Protein backbone atom coordinates (compact mmCIF):
# COMPACT_ATOMS: atom_id res chain seq x y z
CA UNK A 1 0.00 0.00 0.00
CA UNK A 2 1.11 3.56 -0.63
CA UNK A 3 1.58 5.85 2.35
CA UNK A 4 -1.57 7.68 1.36
CA UNK A 5 -3.55 4.46 1.14
CA UNK A 6 -2.20 3.36 4.52
CA UNK A 7 -3.31 6.60 6.13
CA UNK A 8 -6.70 6.33 4.46
CA UNK A 9 -7.13 2.76 5.67
CA UNK A 10 -6.37 3.79 9.24
CA UNK A 11 -8.80 6.69 9.05
CA UNK A 12 -11.47 4.44 7.58
CA UNK A 13 -11.06 1.94 10.43
CA UNK A 14 -11.29 4.67 13.02
CA UNK A 15 -14.36 6.11 11.31
CA UNK A 16 -16.09 2.75 11.09
CA UNK A 17 -15.44 2.04 14.74
CA UNK A 18 -16.92 5.42 15.69
CA UNK A 19 -19.91 4.81 13.46
CA UNK A 20 -20.53 1.29 14.80
CA UNK A 21 -20.77 2.79 18.29
CA UNK A 22 -23.46 5.15 17.06
CA UNK A 23 -25.43 2.22 15.63
CA UNK A 24 -25.83 0.41 18.93
CA UNK A 25 -29.42 0.03 20.07
CA UNK A 26 -31.03 -1.60 23.07
CA UNK A 27 -34.25 -2.99 21.60
CA UNK A 28 -35.47 -5.64 21.37
CA UNK A 29 -32.10 -6.78 22.72
CA UNK A 30 -28.79 -4.90 22.95
CA UNK A 31 -26.88 -4.96 19.68
CA UNK A 32 -26.04 -3.25 16.42
CA UNK A 33 -29.18 -2.02 14.67
CA UNK A 34 -30.32 0.24 11.87
CA UNK A 35 -31.94 -0.22 8.48
CA UNK A 36 -30.84 -2.77 5.89
CA UNK A 37 -30.77 -2.41 2.13
CA UNK A 38 -30.07 -5.37 -0.11
CA UNK A 39 -30.35 -6.20 -3.76
CA UNK A 40 -33.44 -8.31 -3.20
CA UNK A 41 -35.19 -6.57 -0.44
CA UNK A 42 -34.82 -3.89 2.20
CA UNK A 43 -35.62 -3.97 5.89
CA UNK A 44 -36.27 -0.31 6.55
CA UNK A 45 -39.06 -0.58 9.08
CA UNK A 46 -37.40 -2.88 11.55
CA UNK A 47 -34.37 -1.02 12.84
CA UNK A 48 -33.70 -2.86 16.07
CA UNK A 49 -30.73 -5.10 16.76
CA UNK A 50 -30.01 -7.70 14.11
CA UNK A 51 -28.05 -10.73 15.29
CA UNK A 52 -26.95 -11.76 11.83
CA UNK A 53 -23.80 -11.84 9.69
CA UNK A 54 -22.85 -8.32 10.82
CA UNK A 55 -21.34 -9.98 13.91
CA UNK A 56 -18.90 -12.05 11.88
CA UNK A 57 -17.12 -8.98 10.53
CA UNK A 58 -17.42 -6.85 13.64
CA UNK A 59 -15.95 -9.49 15.95
CA UNK A 60 -13.24 -10.59 13.53
CA UNK A 61 -12.33 -7.00 12.67
CA UNK A 62 -11.99 -6.01 16.32
CA UNK A 63 -10.01 -9.16 17.12
CA UNK A 64 -7.58 -8.41 14.30
CA UNK A 65 -7.10 -4.90 15.68
CA UNK A 66 -6.58 -6.32 19.18
CA UNK A 67 -3.87 -8.62 17.92
CA UNK A 68 -2.22 -5.84 15.90
CA UNK A 69 -2.15 -3.29 18.71
CA UNK A 70 -2.40 -5.14 22.03
CA UNK A 71 -4.92 -2.47 22.99
CA UNK A 72 -7.51 -4.19 25.17
CA UNK A 73 -10.31 -1.86 24.06
CA UNK A 74 -10.58 -3.78 20.79
CA UNK A 75 -10.93 -7.09 22.59
CA UNK A 76 -13.59 -5.57 24.84
CA UNK A 77 -15.54 -4.40 21.81
CA UNK A 78 -15.38 -7.88 20.33
CA UNK A 79 -16.58 -9.32 23.64
CA UNK A 80 -19.44 -6.86 23.81
CA UNK A 81 -20.52 -7.99 20.36
CA UNK A 82 -20.22 -11.62 21.43
CA UNK A 83 -22.40 -10.90 24.46
CA UNK A 84 -25.10 -9.47 22.17
CA UNK A 85 -25.32 -12.86 20.47
CA UNK A 86 -25.29 -14.86 23.69
CA UNK A 87 -27.96 -12.67 25.27
CA UNK A 88 -30.09 -12.82 22.14
CA UNK A 89 -29.99 -16.57 21.72
CA UNK A 90 -33.35 -18.30 21.84
CA UNK A 91 -34.16 -21.56 23.62
CA UNK A 92 -34.06 -23.41 20.28
CA UNK A 93 -30.47 -22.29 19.71
CA UNK A 94 -31.32 -19.72 17.04
CA UNK A 95 -30.55 -16.03 17.36
CA UNK A 96 -33.23 -13.40 17.66
CA UNK A 97 -33.68 -11.31 14.49
CA UNK A 98 -30.97 -13.04 12.52
CA UNK A 99 -32.45 -12.59 9.05
CA UNK A 100 -30.77 -9.32 7.93
CA UNK A 101 -32.90 -7.97 5.07
CA UNK A 102 -35.85 -10.10 6.17
CA UNK A 103 -35.82 -9.08 9.81
CA UNK A 104 -37.56 -9.38 12.18
CA UNK A 105 -37.18 -13.14 12.02
CA UNK A 106 -34.93 -15.84 13.40
CA UNK A 107 -33.20 -18.74 11.67
CA UNK A 108 -31.59 -16.66 8.89
CA UNK A 109 -29.01 -18.34 6.68
CA UNK A 110 -26.07 -17.94 6.30
CA UNK A 111 -26.41 -15.39 9.07
CA UNK A 112 -26.56 -17.70 12.05
CA UNK A 113 -23.47 -19.64 10.89
CA UNK A 114 -21.68 -16.33 10.33
CA UNK A 115 -22.59 -15.26 13.86
CA UNK A 116 -21.18 -18.59 15.06
CA UNK A 117 -17.93 -17.84 13.23
CA UNK A 118 -17.70 -14.58 15.17
CA UNK A 119 -18.37 -16.32 18.49
CA UNK A 120 -15.89 -19.11 17.80
CA UNK A 121 -13.13 -16.73 16.76
CA UNK A 122 -13.75 -14.87 19.99
CA UNK A 123 -13.73 -18.07 22.05
CA UNK A 124 -10.44 -19.09 20.43
CA UNK A 125 -8.91 -15.72 21.20
CA UNK A 126 -10.02 -15.91 24.82
CA UNK A 127 -8.64 -19.38 25.50
CA UNK A 128 -5.56 -17.87 27.12
CA UNK A 129 -6.83 -14.42 28.06
CA UNK A 130 -10.22 -15.17 29.68
CA UNK A 131 -11.17 -18.84 29.42
CA UNK A 132 -14.41 -18.51 31.43
CA UNK A 133 -15.80 -15.87 29.05
CA UNK A 134 -14.49 -17.88 26.13
CA UNK A 135 -16.42 -20.94 27.24
CA UNK A 136 -19.64 -18.92 27.27
CA UNK A 137 -19.17 -17.86 23.65
CA UNK A 138 -18.15 -21.37 22.61
CA UNK A 139 -21.27 -22.83 24.26
CA UNK A 140 -23.57 -20.44 22.41
CA UNK A 141 -22.03 -21.22 19.03
CA UNK A 142 -22.05 -24.95 19.71
CA UNK A 143 -25.71 -24.82 20.73
CA UNK A 144 -26.64 -23.03 17.52
CA UNK A 145 -24.63 -25.35 15.29
CA UNK A 146 -25.89 -28.51 16.92
CA UNK A 147 -29.55 -27.59 17.41
CA UNK A 148 -30.10 -25.74 14.13
CA UNK A 149 -27.47 -26.57 11.51
CA UNK A 150 -26.69 -30.18 12.37
CA UNK A 151 -30.16 -31.22 13.56
CA UNK A 152 -32.41 -29.26 11.20
CA UNK A 153 -30.59 -28.09 8.09
CA UNK A 154 -28.26 -31.05 7.56
CA UNK A 155 -29.71 -33.86 5.50
CA UNK A 156 -27.87 -37.06 6.55
CA UNK A 157 -28.99 -39.34 3.68
CA UNK A 158 -27.50 -37.00 1.08
CA UNK A 159 -24.89 -35.30 3.31
CA UNK A 160 -26.18 -31.95 2.11
CA UNK A 161 -26.72 -28.67 3.87
CA UNK A 162 -30.21 -27.59 2.89
CA UNK A 163 -31.36 -24.01 2.80
CA UNK A 164 -34.47 -24.75 4.80
CA UNK A 165 -36.07 -27.71 6.50
CA UNK A 166 -38.22 -28.72 3.54
CA UNK A 167 -36.20 -27.40 0.63
CA UNK A 168 -33.87 -28.99 -1.87
CA UNK A 169 -31.94 -25.75 -2.34
CA UNK A 170 -28.17 -25.74 -1.97
CA UNK A 171 -26.39 -22.38 -1.80
CA UNK A 172 -22.57 -22.61 -1.99
CA UNK A 173 -21.73 -19.38 -0.19
CA UNK A 174 -23.95 -20.29 2.72
CA UNK A 175 -22.45 -23.75 2.80
CA UNK A 176 -18.97 -22.17 2.87
CA UNK A 177 -19.91 -20.08 5.90
CA UNK A 178 -21.10 -23.29 7.53
CA UNK A 179 -17.72 -24.91 6.73
CA UNK A 180 -15.97 -21.99 8.39
CA UNK A 181 -18.03 -22.37 11.55
CA UNK A 182 -17.60 -26.16 11.68
CA UNK A 183 -13.83 -25.89 11.18
CA UNK A 184 -13.60 -23.54 14.14
CA UNK A 185 -15.86 -25.71 16.29
CA UNK A 186 -13.80 -28.76 15.40
CA UNK A 187 -10.61 -26.95 16.39
CA UNK A 188 -12.07 -25.66 19.64
CA UNK A 189 -13.57 -28.97 20.70
CA UNK A 190 -10.90 -31.23 19.17
CA UNK A 191 -13.57 -33.13 17.27
CA UNK A 192 -12.03 -34.24 13.99
CA UNK A 193 -15.13 -36.24 13.12
CA UNK A 194 -16.88 -32.98 12.27
CA UNK A 195 -14.47 -32.43 9.37
CA UNK A 196 -15.25 -35.80 7.85
CA UNK A 197 -18.95 -35.66 8.50
CA UNK A 198 -19.83 -32.08 7.54
CA UNK A 199 -17.10 -30.07 5.87
CA UNK A 200 -15.72 -32.48 3.27
CA UNK A 201 -19.08 -33.46 1.71
CA UNK A 202 -20.13 -29.81 1.75
CA UNK A 203 -16.93 -28.67 0.06
CA UNK A 204 -17.34 -31.37 -2.60
CA UNK A 205 -20.83 -30.07 -3.38
CA UNK A 206 -19.53 -26.50 -3.63
CA UNK A 207 -16.75 -27.51 -5.99
CA UNK A 208 -19.23 -29.44 -8.12
CA UNK A 209 -20.87 -26.10 -8.91
CA UNK A 210 -17.68 -24.47 -10.13
CA UNK A 211 -17.14 -23.80 -13.84
CA UNK A 212 -14.09 -25.91 -14.65
CA UNK A 213 -13.80 -25.58 -18.44
CA UNK A 214 -11.05 -23.00 -19.13
CA UNK A 215 -12.65 -22.04 -22.45
CA UNK A 216 -15.82 -20.77 -20.77
CA UNK A 217 -15.84 -17.08 -19.74
CA UNK A 218 -16.93 -17.77 -16.15
CA UNK A 219 -14.07 -20.26 -15.68
CA UNK A 220 -13.42 -20.53 -11.95
CA UNK A 221 -16.75 -19.00 -10.94
CA UNK A 222 -19.13 -20.84 -8.64
CA UNK A 223 -22.85 -20.80 -9.44
CA UNK A 224 -25.13 -19.06 -6.96
CA UNK A 225 -27.39 -21.98 -6.06
CA UNK A 226 -29.27 -25.03 -7.25
CA UNK A 227 -32.77 -26.33 -6.77
CA UNK A 228 -32.46 -30.10 -6.72
CA UNK A 229 -30.22 -30.80 -9.69
CA UNK A 230 -31.08 -27.58 -11.55
CA UNK A 231 -28.11 -25.21 -11.24
CA UNK A 232 -28.90 -21.50 -11.48
CA UNK A 233 -26.52 -20.07 -14.03
CA UNK A 234 -25.72 -16.83 -12.22
CA UNK A 235 -22.45 -15.77 -10.65
CA UNK A 236 -22.36 -13.19 -7.86
CA UNK A 237 -18.82 -11.91 -7.16
CA UNK A 238 -19.58 -11.12 -3.52
CA UNK A 239 -20.85 -14.60 -2.82
CA UNK A 240 -18.04 -16.29 -4.73
CA UNK A 241 -15.60 -14.26 -2.63
CA UNK A 242 -17.24 -15.48 0.58
CA UNK A 243 -16.50 -19.05 -0.48
CA UNK A 244 -12.74 -18.58 -0.95
CA UNK A 245 -11.40 -18.17 2.63
CA UNK A 246 -13.33 -21.14 4.12
CA UNK A 247 -12.24 -23.44 1.28
CA UNK A 248 -8.63 -22.37 1.75
CA UNK A 249 -8.91 -22.95 5.49
CA UNK A 250 -10.25 -26.42 4.81
CA UNK A 251 -7.29 -26.99 2.50
CA UNK A 252 -4.93 -25.93 5.29
CA UNK A 253 -6.64 -28.38 7.60
CA UNK A 254 -6.79 -31.36 5.22
CA UNK A 255 -3.96 -30.69 2.79
CA UNK A 256 -6.23 -31.52 -0.17
CA UNK A 257 -4.69 -29.65 -3.16
CA UNK A 258 -8.01 -29.66 -5.09
CA UNK A 259 -9.47 -27.28 -2.55
CA UNK A 260 -6.63 -24.82 -2.97
CA UNK A 261 -6.78 -24.95 -6.80
CA UNK A 262 -10.54 -24.40 -6.76
CA UNK A 263 -10.32 -21.45 -4.39
CA UNK A 264 -7.51 -19.84 -6.36
CA UNK A 265 -9.39 -20.34 -9.65
CA UNK A 266 -12.36 -18.57 -8.07
CA UNK A 267 -10.11 -15.72 -6.92
CA UNK A 268 -8.63 -15.36 -10.41
CA UNK A 269 -12.12 -15.25 -11.88
CA UNK A 270 -12.88 -12.34 -9.57
CA UNK A 271 -9.64 -10.63 -10.56
CA UNK A 272 -10.56 -11.03 -14.27
CA UNK A 273 -13.97 -9.46 -13.92
CA UNK A 274 -12.85 -6.61 -11.67
CA UNK A 275 -13.67 -3.34 -13.40
CA UNK A 276 -11.18 -0.56 -14.04
CA UNK A 277 -12.31 1.45 -11.00
CA UNK A 278 -11.93 -1.57 -8.71
CA UNK A 279 -15.67 -2.32 -8.43
CA UNK A 280 -17.47 -5.51 -9.37
CA UNK A 281 -20.75 -6.19 -11.12
CA UNK A 282 -23.55 -7.42 -8.92
CA UNK A 283 -24.01 -10.56 -10.98
CA UNK A 284 -22.77 -12.14 -14.19
CA UNK A 285 -25.22 -14.47 -15.87
CA UNK A 286 -24.28 -17.61 -17.76
CA UNK A 287 -24.70 -15.82 -21.09
CA UNK A 288 -22.03 -13.33 -20.06
CA UNK A 289 -24.47 -10.52 -19.39
CA UNK A 290 -23.44 -8.27 -16.50
CA UNK A 291 -25.81 -6.61 -14.12
CA UNK A 292 -23.90 -3.72 -12.56
CA UNK A 293 -26.75 -2.36 -10.51
CA UNK A 294 -25.94 -2.02 -7.78
CA UNK A 295 -22.21 -2.49 -7.33
CA UNK A 296 -21.41 -3.12 -3.66
CA UNK A 297 -18.98 -0.75 -1.97
CA UNK A 298 -18.91 -1.57 1.77
CA UNK A 299 -19.75 -5.22 1.07
CA UNK A 300 -16.82 -5.48 -1.33
CA UNK A 301 -14.70 -5.76 1.80
CA UNK A 302 -15.42 -9.48 1.58
CA UNK A 303 -13.93 -9.56 -1.93
CA UNK A 304 -10.86 -7.68 -0.75
CA UNK A 305 -10.52 -10.12 2.15
CA UNK A 306 -10.78 -13.07 -0.26
CA UNK A 307 -7.93 -11.55 -2.32
CA UNK A 308 -5.80 -11.07 0.80
CA UNK A 309 -6.33 -14.70 1.82
CA UNK A 310 -5.75 -15.95 -1.74
CA UNK A 311 -2.48 -14.01 -1.87
CA UNK A 312 -1.34 -15.84 1.24
CA UNK A 313 -1.68 -18.94 -0.96
CA UNK A 314 0.34 -17.47 -3.82
CA UNK A 315 -2.32 -15.78 -5.94
CA UNK A 316 -0.45 -12.44 -6.31
CA UNK A 317 -3.56 -10.37 -6.96
CA UNK A 318 -3.08 -6.60 -6.95
CA UNK A 319 -5.07 -5.31 -3.99
CA UNK A 320 -4.75 -1.61 -4.75
CA UNK A 321 -7.82 -1.19 -7.03
CA UNK A 322 -10.04 -3.00 -4.52
CA UNK A 323 -8.72 -0.92 -1.63
CA UNK A 324 -9.35 2.29 -3.59
CA UNK A 325 -12.86 1.16 -4.47
CA UNK A 326 -13.67 0.45 -0.83
CA UNK A 327 -12.18 3.69 0.43
CA UNK A 328 -14.13 5.81 -2.03
CA UNK A 329 -17.21 4.89 -0.02
CA UNK A 330 -15.93 6.45 3.21
CA UNK A 331 -18.33 9.14 4.43
CA UNK A 332 -17.79 11.92 6.98
CA UNK A 333 -19.74 10.19 9.76
CA UNK A 334 -17.48 7.14 9.41
CA UNK A 335 -19.76 4.71 7.58
CA UNK A 336 -18.94 3.34 4.15
CA UNK A 337 -21.62 3.77 1.51
CA UNK A 338 -23.48 0.59 0.68
CA UNK A 339 -23.40 0.62 -3.10
CA UNK A 340 -23.58 2.47 -6.37
CA UNK A 341 -26.56 2.03 -8.67
CA UNK A 342 -29.59 1.00 -6.59
CA UNK A 343 -31.63 3.62 -8.39
CA UNK A 344 -30.98 2.08 -11.79
CA UNK A 345 -31.99 -1.55 -11.25
CA UNK A 346 -35.31 -1.04 -12.98
CA UNK A 347 -35.93 2.14 -14.99
CA UNK A 348 -38.43 4.46 -13.27
CA UNK A 349 -39.50 1.92 -10.66
CA UNK A 350 -36.13 1.91 -8.86
CA UNK A 351 -35.68 5.68 -8.80
CA UNK A 352 -37.03 5.79 -5.29
CA UNK A 353 -34.22 3.42 -4.25
CA UNK A 354 -31.47 5.94 -4.94
CA UNK A 355 -31.21 6.66 -1.20
CA UNK A 356 -30.01 3.08 -0.65
CA UNK A 357 -26.61 3.78 -2.22
CA UNK A 358 -25.59 6.18 0.50
CA UNK A 359 -27.16 4.45 3.46
CA UNK A 360 -24.85 3.03 6.10
CA UNK A 361 -25.71 -0.58 6.90
CA UNK A 362 -23.90 -2.34 9.74
CA UNK A 363 -24.22 -5.70 7.95
CA UNK A 364 -22.26 -4.33 4.99
CA UNK A 365 -19.80 -2.11 6.85
CA UNK A 366 -18.68 -5.06 8.97
CA UNK A 367 -17.21 -6.57 5.80
CA UNK A 368 -15.23 -3.39 5.26
CA UNK A 369 -13.72 -3.26 8.75
CA UNK A 370 -12.89 -6.96 8.60
CA UNK A 371 -10.82 -6.50 5.44
CA UNK A 372 -9.33 -3.14 6.38
CA UNK A 373 -8.19 -4.49 9.75
CA UNK A 374 -6.24 -7.19 7.90
CA UNK A 375 -4.49 -4.51 5.85
CA UNK A 376 -3.66 -2.58 9.03
CA UNK A 377 -2.26 -5.74 10.59
CA UNK A 378 -0.12 -6.56 7.58
CA UNK A 379 1.32 -3.09 7.12
CA UNK A 380 5.04 -3.04 8.11
CA UNK A 381 4.75 0.31 9.84
CA UNK A 382 1.59 -0.78 11.55
CA UNK A 383 2.56 -0.10 15.13
CA UNK A 384 2.60 3.65 14.80
CA UNK A 385 -0.24 3.87 12.34
CA UNK A 386 -2.64 1.62 14.19
CA UNK A 387 -1.77 3.33 17.44
CA UNK A 388 -2.64 6.66 15.80
CA UNK A 389 -5.89 5.25 14.56
CA UNK A 390 -6.70 4.00 18.03
CA UNK A 391 -6.24 7.52 19.36
CA UNK A 392 -8.61 8.83 16.72
CA UNK A 393 -11.12 6.11 17.48
CA UNK A 394 -11.13 6.93 21.16
CA UNK A 395 -12.49 10.39 20.54
CA UNK A 396 -16.11 10.39 21.52
CA UNK A 397 -15.99 7.05 23.30
CA UNK A 398 -16.80 6.44 26.88
CA UNK A 399 -14.20 4.02 28.14
CA UNK B 1 -34.10 -17.50 -7.83
CA UNK B 2 -35.03 -16.52 -4.33
CA UNK B 3 -33.77 -14.01 -1.84
CA UNK B 4 -30.38 -14.63 -0.32
CA UNK B 5 -31.64 -15.03 3.20
CA UNK B 6 -33.58 -18.22 3.75
CA UNK B 7 -35.88 -18.54 6.69
CA UNK B 8 -37.44 -21.52 8.34
CA UNK B 9 -41.14 -21.81 7.71
CA UNK B 10 -42.32 -20.94 11.19
CA UNK B 11 -40.97 -17.40 11.31
CA UNK B 12 -42.22 -14.02 10.19
CA UNK B 13 -40.37 -14.14 6.92
CA UNK B 14 -42.18 -17.30 5.91
CA UNK B 15 -45.30 -15.17 5.47
CA UNK B 16 -46.15 -14.16 1.92
CA UNK B 17 -44.29 -11.07 0.77
CA UNK B 18 -47.41 -8.90 0.64
CA UNK B 19 -48.28 -9.85 4.21
CA UNK B 20 -44.78 -8.95 5.37
CA UNK B 21 -45.11 -5.60 3.64
CA UNK B 22 -48.42 -5.11 5.43
CA UNK B 23 -46.82 -5.80 8.79
CA UNK B 24 -44.03 -3.34 7.96
CA UNK B 25 -46.63 -0.68 7.24
CA UNK B 26 -48.64 -1.52 10.34
CA UNK B 27 -45.53 -1.16 12.48
CA UNK B 28 -44.80 2.22 10.89
CA UNK B 29 -48.37 3.26 11.63
CA UNK B 30 -48.51 2.01 15.21
CA UNK B 31 -45.02 2.32 16.65
CA UNK B 32 -43.77 5.12 18.80
CA UNK B 33 -40.45 5.57 20.53
CA UNK B 34 -38.17 2.52 20.80
CA UNK B 35 -40.51 0.33 18.80
CA UNK B 36 -43.37 0.42 21.34
CA UNK B 37 -46.82 -0.13 19.81
CA UNK B 38 -49.58 1.16 22.11
CA UNK B 39 -52.44 -1.04 20.89
CA UNK B 40 -54.36 -4.20 21.66
CA UNK B 41 -53.77 -6.65 18.85
CA UNK B 42 -56.56 -9.07 18.03
CA UNK B 43 -56.42 -11.54 15.20
CA UNK B 44 -54.84 -14.60 13.67
CA UNK B 45 -52.18 -15.89 16.07
CA UNK B 46 -49.47 -16.16 13.42
CA UNK B 47 -49.99 -12.53 12.42
CA UNK B 48 -50.16 -11.29 16.01
CA UNK B 49 -46.90 -13.11 16.78
CA UNK B 50 -45.27 -11.75 13.63
CA UNK B 51 -46.22 -8.16 14.43
CA UNK B 52 -44.96 -8.64 17.98
CA UNK B 53 -41.49 -9.38 16.61
CA UNK B 54 -41.13 -5.82 15.34
CA UNK B 55 -41.18 -4.32 18.81
CA UNK B 56 -43.13 -4.25 22.06
CA UNK B 57 -46.93 -4.28 22.11
CA UNK B 58 -48.28 -2.25 25.05
CA UNK B 59 -51.93 -3.06 25.53
CA UNK B 60 -54.24 -0.12 24.87
CA UNK B 61 -57.92 -1.00 24.56
CA UNK B 62 -58.76 2.42 23.22
CA UNK B 63 -56.71 1.69 20.08
CA UNK B 64 -57.27 -1.90 18.98
CA UNK B 65 -55.67 -3.39 15.87
CA UNK B 66 -57.43 -6.23 14.06
CA UNK B 67 -55.35 -8.59 11.94
CA UNK B 68 -57.52 -10.63 9.61
CA UNK B 69 -60.68 -11.02 11.72
CA UNK B 70 -64.37 -11.17 10.87
CA UNK B 71 -66.71 -8.22 11.30
CA UNK B 72 -68.45 -9.98 14.18
CA UNK B 73 -65.20 -9.96 16.19
CA UNK B 74 -64.70 -6.25 15.53
CA UNK B 75 -68.30 -5.60 16.48
CA UNK B 76 -67.90 -7.37 19.83
CA UNK B 77 -64.86 -5.27 20.68
CA UNK B 78 -66.66 -2.06 19.77
CA UNK B 79 -69.59 -3.00 21.97
CA UNK B 80 -67.28 -3.76 24.87
CA UNK B 81 -64.98 -0.75 24.86
CA UNK B 82 -66.03 1.87 22.26
CA UNK B 83 -62.42 2.49 21.17
CA UNK B 84 -61.40 5.87 19.77
CA UNK B 85 -59.20 4.48 17.00
CA UNK B 86 -59.30 1.17 15.16
CA UNK B 87 -56.78 -0.21 12.68
CA UNK B 88 -57.80 -3.16 10.50
CA UNK B 89 -55.78 -5.39 8.18
CA UNK B 90 -57.96 -7.30 5.76
CA UNK B 91 -58.08 -8.53 2.21
CA UNK B 92 -58.95 -6.32 -0.74
CA UNK B 93 -60.94 -6.93 -3.89
CA UNK B 94 -58.04 -8.50 -5.78
CA UNK B 95 -57.54 -11.32 -3.33
CA UNK B 96 -60.64 -13.14 -4.50
CA UNK B 97 -59.35 -12.97 -8.07
CA UNK B 98 -55.85 -14.28 -7.42
CA UNK B 99 -56.60 -16.81 -4.67
CA UNK B 100 -57.13 -19.70 -7.11
CA UNK B 101 -53.85 -18.87 -8.86
CA UNK B 102 -51.53 -18.73 -5.88
CA UNK B 103 -50.67 -21.04 -3.03
CA UNK B 104 -49.28 -18.35 -0.79
CA UNK B 105 -52.21 -15.96 -0.61
CA UNK B 106 -52.89 -15.27 3.02
CA UNK B 107 -56.48 -16.18 3.85
CA UNK B 108 -57.67 -13.11 5.70
CA UNK B 109 -61.30 -11.87 5.64
CA UNK B 110 -62.24 -8.66 3.88
CA UNK B 111 -62.47 -5.39 5.76
CA UNK B 112 -66.16 -4.59 6.43
CA UNK B 113 -67.72 -2.11 4.00
CA UNK B 114 -67.93 1.61 4.74
CA UNK B 115 -71.65 1.45 5.45
CA UNK B 116 -70.99 -1.05 8.23
CA UNK B 117 -68.45 1.28 9.84
CA UNK B 118 -70.82 4.23 9.60
CA UNK B 119 -73.50 2.25 11.38
CA UNK B 120 -70.95 1.49 14.12
CA UNK B 121 -70.16 5.20 14.41
CA UNK B 122 -66.71 5.26 12.81
CA UNK B 123 -65.19 7.11 9.89
CA UNK B 124 -62.27 6.16 7.68
CA UNK B 125 -59.22 8.39 8.18
CA UNK B 126 -56.51 6.45 6.38
CA UNK B 127 -56.30 3.68 3.81
CA UNK B 128 -53.17 1.89 2.59
CA UNK B 129 -53.37 -0.69 -0.16
CA UNK B 130 -50.84 -3.47 -0.61
CA UNK B 131 -50.09 -5.38 -3.80
CA UNK B 132 -52.14 -3.79 -6.50
CA UNK B 133 -52.21 -4.22 -10.25
CA UNK B 134 -48.64 -2.89 -10.72
CA UNK B 135 -47.01 -5.34 -8.36
CA UNK B 136 -48.98 -8.25 -9.78
CA UNK B 137 -47.93 -7.21 -13.28
CA UNK B 138 -44.24 -7.35 -12.32
CA UNK B 139 -44.77 -10.63 -10.53
CA UNK B 140 -46.31 -12.12 -13.68
CA UNK B 141 -43.39 -10.85 -15.79
CA UNK B 142 -40.96 -12.41 -13.30
CA UNK B 143 -42.62 -15.82 -13.56
CA UNK B 144 -42.98 -15.68 -17.31
CA UNK B 145 -39.38 -14.64 -17.95
CA UNK B 146 -38.04 -17.26 -15.58
CA UNK B 147 -39.99 -19.90 -17.49
CA UNK B 148 -38.18 -18.80 -20.66
CA UNK B 149 -34.78 -18.73 -18.90
CA UNK B 150 -34.45 -14.94 -19.09
CA UNK B 151 -33.07 -14.81 -15.56
CA UNK B 152 -31.43 -11.40 -15.82
CA UNK B 153 -34.67 -9.69 -16.76
CA UNK B 154 -36.69 -11.82 -14.37
CA UNK B 155 -34.49 -10.71 -11.48
CA UNK B 156 -35.21 -7.08 -12.31
CA UNK B 157 -38.92 -7.74 -12.52
CA UNK B 158 -38.84 -9.41 -9.12
CA UNK B 159 -37.19 -6.35 -7.63
CA UNK B 160 -39.78 -4.13 -9.33
CA UNK B 161 -42.51 -6.33 -7.86
CA UNK B 162 -41.09 -5.83 -4.37
CA UNK B 163 -40.70 -2.09 -4.83
CA UNK B 164 -44.30 -1.64 -5.95
CA UNK B 165 -45.94 -3.62 -3.17
CA UNK B 166 -47.50 -0.48 -1.74
CA UNK B 167 -50.26 0.17 -4.25
CA UNK B 168 -51.59 3.39 -5.72
CA UNK B 169 -53.72 5.51 -3.40
CA UNK B 170 -56.65 5.94 -5.76
CA UNK B 171 -59.82 4.95 -3.97
CA UNK B 172 -60.96 2.70 -6.81
CA UNK B 173 -57.60 0.91 -7.25
CA UNK B 174 -57.93 -2.76 -6.28
CA UNK B 175 -55.41 -4.57 -4.09
CA UNK B 176 -54.99 -7.95 -2.41
CA UNK B 177 -54.54 -6.52 1.10
CA UNK B 178 -55.44 -3.24 2.74
CA UNK B 179 -54.95 -1.44 6.02
CA UNK B 180 -57.69 0.91 7.13
CA UNK B 181 -57.65 3.27 10.08
CA UNK B 182 -60.95 4.44 11.56
CA UNK B 183 -61.73 7.00 14.22
CA UNK B 184 -64.85 7.32 16.29
CA UNK B 185 -67.11 10.01 14.88
CA UNK B 186 -67.82 12.81 17.32
What do these coordinates show?
The complex is a heterodimer of chains A (399) and B (186). Chain A is mainly α and 399 residues long. Chain A has one domain (3-394): Glycosyltransferase, CATH 1.50.10. In chain A, 54% of the residues lie in helices and 7% in strands. Chain A has helices at residues 3-22, 54-69, 72-87, 111-129, 131-153, 172-189, 193-207, 237-254, 257-273, 301-311, 320-327, 355-358, 362-378, 382-394, and strands at residues 24-25, 31-32, 154-155, 160-161, 169-170, 225-227, 230-232, 234-235, 283-285, 290-291, 295-296, 339-340. In chain A, the strands form five sheets. Chain A has a three-stranded antiparallel β-sheet with strand order 5-6-7. The longest helix of chain A has 23 residues, at 131-153. Chain A starts with a helix and ends in a 5-residue tail after the last helix. Chain B has 186 residues and is α/β, with parallel strands linked by helices. Chain B has one domain (12-131, 173-184): Rossmann fold (3-Layer(aba) Sandwich). Chain B is 40% helix and 23% strand. In chain B, the strands form two sheets. A five-stranded mixed β-sheet of chain B has the order 2-4-5-7-6, with helices on both faces. A two-stranded parallel ribbon of chain B has the order 1-3. Chain B starts with 16 loop residues before the first helix and ends with a strand. The model of chain B has no long low-confidence stretch (mean pLDDT 88). The interface between A and B is large, with 50 and 36 residues.
Amino acid sequence: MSALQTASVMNAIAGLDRWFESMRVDWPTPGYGGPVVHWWNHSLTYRGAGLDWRYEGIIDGYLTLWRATDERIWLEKAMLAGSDLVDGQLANGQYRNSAFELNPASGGTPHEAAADVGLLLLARELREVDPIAGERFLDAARRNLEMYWFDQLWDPPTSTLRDGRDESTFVPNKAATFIDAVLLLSEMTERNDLIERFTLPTAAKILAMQVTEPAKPPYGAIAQNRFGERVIDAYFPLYIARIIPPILRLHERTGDPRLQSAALAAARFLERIRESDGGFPQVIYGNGKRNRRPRWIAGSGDILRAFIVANQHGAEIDLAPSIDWLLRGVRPDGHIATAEGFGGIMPLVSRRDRFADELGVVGWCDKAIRALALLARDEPSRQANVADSVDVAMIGHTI
Amino acid sequence: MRAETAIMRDTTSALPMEMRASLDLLFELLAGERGVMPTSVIGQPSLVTALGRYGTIESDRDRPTFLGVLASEISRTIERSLPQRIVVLGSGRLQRVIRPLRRSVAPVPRVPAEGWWERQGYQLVRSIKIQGIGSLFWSSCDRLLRRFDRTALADRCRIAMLRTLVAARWSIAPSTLCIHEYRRAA
